[in-house]
Specification:
Elements: E1 3-8, E2 18-23, H1 32-41, H2 43-50, E3 61-64, E4 72-77, H3 88-105, E5 110-113, H4 125-142, E6 148-153, H5 156-170
Parallel strand pairs: 1-6, 2-4, 2-5, 5-6
Antiparallel strand pairs: 3-4
Helix pairs in contact: 3-4, 4-5
Length: about 170
């Protein structure tokens, strides 16, 4: 089974086969990590995204990485938190599953993820971390050709939340 790492960093600087983008449904750029990825990738990314016709929440689409060090970008619109009774957990799990499946289908061996939906979409960090960690481990088991998945956290607080889930589930 592949390796799963958790660290704080800037996902746009990672030399991996694919980075996941916490996109909005238009795929045309937004705030947070989405904005950073579009800025770092250059105009080619936006042009390719325009041709994709958007993406449903929980689904994923792949583009080239353009000026990023990553070969591909996996775009996945995460759910907006509305209290948890509107299928948010299933949609968030689906984001990770679909990105990992797309990475596998495109021959990616290394993938970096941001913490999907925990920024302006308001998903409670601890709950999102539990879903992400569990789903990433399941993906590494299902697709042994994926050698490494890195959770790239935007702050030490987020990194600690993800590492706590790993330690709690290992204990």
């Amino acid at each position: 089974m592949g390796i799963f790492k958790i660290e704080t960093g800037d996902i746009t600087t990672y030399h991996v086969d694919a980075i996941a983008n916490a996109a909005n449904c238009s795929l045309l750029g937004g705030g947070g990590v989405d904005e950073a990825i579009h800025r770092a990738a250059g105009p080619g990314l936006l042009n390719e995204c325009r041709a994709l016709g958007g993406c449903e929440t929980g689904q994923a689409k792949i583009t080239k990485g353009y000026q990023l060090p990553a070969k591909y970008v996996l775009h996945t619109p995460g759910p907006v938190w509305n209290g948890g009774a509107f299928g948010e957990a299933e949609l968030l799990k689906s984001c990770y599953e679909n990105c990992i499946r797309l990475a596998h289908e495109n021959g990616c061996r290394t993938v970096a993820f941001p913490s999907i939906s925990t920024g302006i979409y308001g998903y409670p960090l601890e709950q999102a971390a539990e879903i992400a960690v569990k789903t990433i481990y399941e993906g590494l088991e299902k697709y042994p050709d994926i050698e490494e998945i890195i959770m790239v956290c935007f702050s030490e607080r987020v990194e600690k939340a993800y590492k706590k889930v790993c330690y709690d589930s290992a204990g």
